[in-house]
Amino acid sequence: MDDRVTLWHVPQSRSFRVLWFLHEAQIAHDVIQMSFAGKGLRDPGFLAVSPAGRVPAVRVDGRTLFESGAILEWLCESRAPQFGRAPGHPERADWLEWLHYSETIGQHLAQLTQQHIVLREDWMRSPTVMKLEAMRLARVLAGVGSVVQGRDWMLASGFSAVDVAVGYGVHLARRFVQVDDIPGLAGYHARLVARPAFQAAQAADGPADIYTRDFYPVPEF
Ligand SMILES: N[C@@H](CCC(=O)N[C@@H](CS)C(=O)NCC(=O)O)C(=O)O
């Protein structure tokens, strides 16, 4: 069996989770760089891999797989058990819960990205939605902060795929909310970005495809 993993990736997007994880677990991989610009994500060839035309998607173990959470679970089970918490592990339920919580963070990031970036004209945007989504994102992040105030990583047993999935959200959220003001998160973010695998993934991420500003404030009403 070919152990290499192929990742379809858009820089700065959720596929960064998988790119980062591949570096954490030192899994041999190839990256197919995609872009939100143009029609690549809607190409029939890519839709055969990812039916909604979204990233991440991977080719792994003779099949393709989409959904970042499922990909991380598969890679833990097949190649990197140290980053998973297998059935029977005392933190199994916590691992699953927080791994999927990363998409609760993700839905607010997606809304804010749509409002600030995808909708290009001011008349298309809603400052009300922007403000609401920023507040809801901060609330969701506070749930993460409450855990990492008392320890380095999301699970007491140590760094895991949860920190990659949630950590991507914490990192990206800094473009929309004052993450460092949320108790626990400044230190957690600093620990995440200090990881050599995070830095290696950043170096491999590719040119900015989505975000060009460090911070996107809620516009004045
Ligand atoms: N729940 C999916 C979400 C995937 C997703 O929405 N990816 C975005 C990038 S962050 C995308 O590909 N968007 C392209 C589009 O909406 O056309 C996951 O976690 O993999």
Kindly describe this structure.
The protein is of the alpha+beta class. It has two domains: 5-83, Glutaredoxin, CATH 3.40.30.10; 92-204, Glutathione S-transferase Yfyf (Class Pi), Chain A, domain 2 (Up-down Bundle), CATH 1.20.1050.10. It has helices at residues 15-24, 44-47, 68-78, 92-118, 127-148, 161-173, 185-193, 196-204; strands at residues 5-9, 29-33, 57-60, 63-66. Strands 2-1-3-4 form a four-stranded mixed sheet, with helices on one face. It starts with a strand and ends in a 17-residue tail after the last helix. Bound molecules: glutathione. Glutathione is lined by residues 13-14, 41, 53-56, 67-69, 103, 106.
Outline:
This protein is of the alpha+beta class and 221 residues long. It is built from eight helices and four strands. The structure holds glutathione (GSH).
Our estimate of the beta-strand percent is 5-15%
What overall geometry do the principal axes of the alpha carbons give? globular
Percent helix, as a range, is 40-55%
Subunit organisation of the chains: single chain
- Give the CATH architecture of the largest domain: Up-down Bundle
CATH class annotation of the largest domain: Mainly Alpha
Tally of separate domains: 2
Strand order of the largest sheet: 2-1-3-4
Mean pLDDT: 97
Total DSSP helices = 8
> What is the strand tally?
4
Gyration radius over CA: 17 Å
